[in-house]
Amino acid sequence: MSIPISEVVSRIPRSGIRDFFEIVQSMEDVISLGIGEPDFATPWNIREAAIHSLERGRTGYTSNLGLPRFRRAISTYIKGHLGVSYEPLGEILVSVGVSEALDVALRALLNPGDEVLYHEPCYVSYSPSILLAGGRGRAIPTKWEENFILKASDVEKAIGPRTRVLMLNFPTNPSGATIPPEELERIAAICVKYHLVVLTDEIYSELTYDGASHHTIAAQPGMKERTILLHGLSKAFAMTGWRIGFACGPTEIIEAMMKIHQYAILCAPTMGQEAGIEALERGEPAVAAMRREYEMRRNVIVRSLNDMGLECVKPRGAFYVFPKVSGTGLSGRDFSMRLLQEHKVAVVPGDAFGSNCGDHVRCSYATSLDQIKVAMTRMAEFVDSLRG
Ligand code: PLP
Predict the structure, then answer these.
(1) Which of 9, 229, 304, 377 is most buried, judged by most C-beta within 10 A?
(2) To the nearest whole number, what is the mean pLDDT of the chain?
(3) Which of the four pLDDT bands, split at 50, 70 and 90, describes residue 14?
(4) Radius of gyration of the chain (CA)
(5) Could you tell me the CATH number of the domain that includes residue 376?
(6) Average of pLDDT values for 6-17?
């Protein structure tokens, strides 16, 4: 007997990255620039805080919304980092990573058929999460020639009668794009004009380079009341495995999200929340050190890619570069497959991040400088062989 699967789930494709990484895992001596997670272990003071909480026997559930002390730490941190004030008791929900916050926010917002706009290339989960929440996703393509910046005029053009939500992610996975404050201001004005709710994924907001400061749309006039700000500890604090994220927004939406979270998850991991207090209160020096290291690696990888003749925008945030490889005569997918099979370097085909990205590959520099240098030498040999 075959068990019937829900129609929505059947319609969702497997992640384009998954099949590729199954091949990677079956090979030896591969250098992977494919993974979107820090190569650093969580800073020691944060790990120690978690150990200490275990020693004290803090192993039970927390409030559904999250530990009150952690929510106070989040409120103070977000005020300092992004300049927006949230009330710890009603405007913050602690989640199992940004992943869960994203899913719960969409489910709390959407009625069947509601439309959600997002800019492409984008993180692989956006489109499936919208579908799973009963919505319809509409991608707004951003262009390589424009540094993958989302333009307010393109947002306005994409708005239709069922559009309810705009999703933003700057710095962006996979392009590393950041957005100029003037453009953010224009997008905010459009959201106010068309009564859109904004879901802003700020997971890379600490990781900006060249001295650039980060701005969130939630801080724009008229936006706090229509924005759900999502953030978490995975990237800047090197805490992917702890599974801690959070959502900040108006009380009524946080309350609605809490209902879903309460029945589906109950609460985020207690040990992770205890560690999160230490991360947000005393983690900044470690974040700054990791940021310096990422910036240095970014400079090396961008220079190497340009030296081998691959067109590459210098990204100003996150820890990815997204070079265009079509000049070699190969699509991003063929380039990735042959680079892996012939030179044992794993990068992610660009089409995993959107239908307009088949000419690109994503390389992560969340891996050691030594590994990056070897990977770049191998990639240069590969590109030479294609030209030869
Ligand atoms: N949002 C973006 C843009 C990401 O790149 C990722 C992970 O790669 C996530 C969310 C998921 O983060 P978390 O570990 O907090 O669930």
Answers:
(1) 229
(2) 95
(3) confident
(4) 21
(5) 3.90.1150.10
(6) 85
CA of 240 to the centre of ligand 1 (A): 9
Tell how far the Cα of 98 is from the centroid of ligand 1, in angstroms: 6
Residue 272 neighbours by CB under 8 Å, 6+ apart: 50, 233, 239, 242, 243, 244
The number of the ligand 1 atom at minimal distance from the alpha carbon of 122 is 3
Atom of ligand 1 nearest to the CA of 244: 15
Average pLDDT over residues 62-70: 98
Q: What is the pLDDT of residue 152?
A: 98
Pairing of strands 227-232, 197-201: parallel
Run of H or E including 46 = helix 44-55
State yes or no: pLDDT of 97 exceeds 80: yes
**Rounded Cα gap, residues 177 and 120, in angstroms:** 11
Q: Tokens 């700000």 identify what position?
A: 229
pLDDT top residue among 106 and 25: 106
pTM for the structure as a whole = 0.96
Q: Using CA positions, which residue lies closest to atom 12 of ligand 1?
A: 98
Looking at the structure, tell me whether residues 150 and 95 fall in a common domain: yes
The set of protein residues with a Cβ atom below 6 angstroms from ligand 1 is 36, 97-99, 123, 169, 173, 201, 203, 232, 234, 240, 245
Domain limits for position 134: 44-283
Q: How far is the CA of 168 from the centre of ligand 1 (A)?
A: 13
Cβ proximity of 200 and 229 under 8 Å: yes
Regarding whether 366 and 265 lie in a shared domain, the answer is no
DSSP helix/strand/coil, 42: coil
Q: For residue 240, give the ligand 1 atom closest to its CA.
A: 14
Hey, whose CA ends up nearest to atom 2 of ligand 1?
A: 123
Q: Is the model's pLDDT at 113 over the cut of 80? A: yes
Among the three residues 246, 265, 283, which one is the final residue of a domain in this structure? 283
Average pLDDT over residues 245-256: 98
For residues 279 and 294, membership in a common domain is answered with: no
pLDDT surpasses 80 at 16: no
Asked if 298 and 261 sit in the same domain, the reply is no
> Is 90 exceeded by the pLDDT of residue 61?
yes
Cα-to-centroid distance, 235 and ligand 1 (Å): 8
Mutate to test the pocket of ligand 1, among 42, 102, 234, 353 (most ligand atoms within 8 A of CB): 234
